[in-house]
Amino acid sequence: MLVLTRKIGEEILIPTHGITITVLGIESGRVRMGITAPPEIRVLRGELVQQGAKTAKEPAAVVAERV
Fold first, then answer.
1. pLDDT band at 65 (very low <50, low <70, confident <90, very high)
2. Is 25 exposed, middle or buried (0-12, 13-18, 19+ CB in 10 A)?
3. N or C end: fewer C-beta atoms under 10 angstroms in the chain?
């Protein structure tokens, strides 16, 4: 696991996969992040994958909304 400290507006890049993670906001112990990835890469919240594993073979159908 890589642990980083970032400020609002700073990015984390995964260039070999075309993924950019941007810190959008920080408040009350929560971090708001934006994730940009190619359409063929699914971006899921961890708890949705865990819930999906309990009820189906595929991860939960709800994915991050692409904007």
1. low
2. exposed
3. N
Tokens 């063929």 belong to residue:
40
User: How many CA within 13 A on the CB side of residue 3?
Assistant: 0
Does residue 41 sit in helix, strand or coil? Answer: coil
- Per-residue DSSP letter, 6: -
Instruction: Tell if the pTM clears 0.85, that is, is over it.
Output: no
CB atoms < 10 A from the CB of 62, how many? 11
Report the amino acid identity of residue 21.
I
33-61 residues labelled b (16+ CB within 10 A) or e (exposed):
eeeebeeeeeeeeeeeeeebeeeeeebbe
pLDDT on residue 61: 45
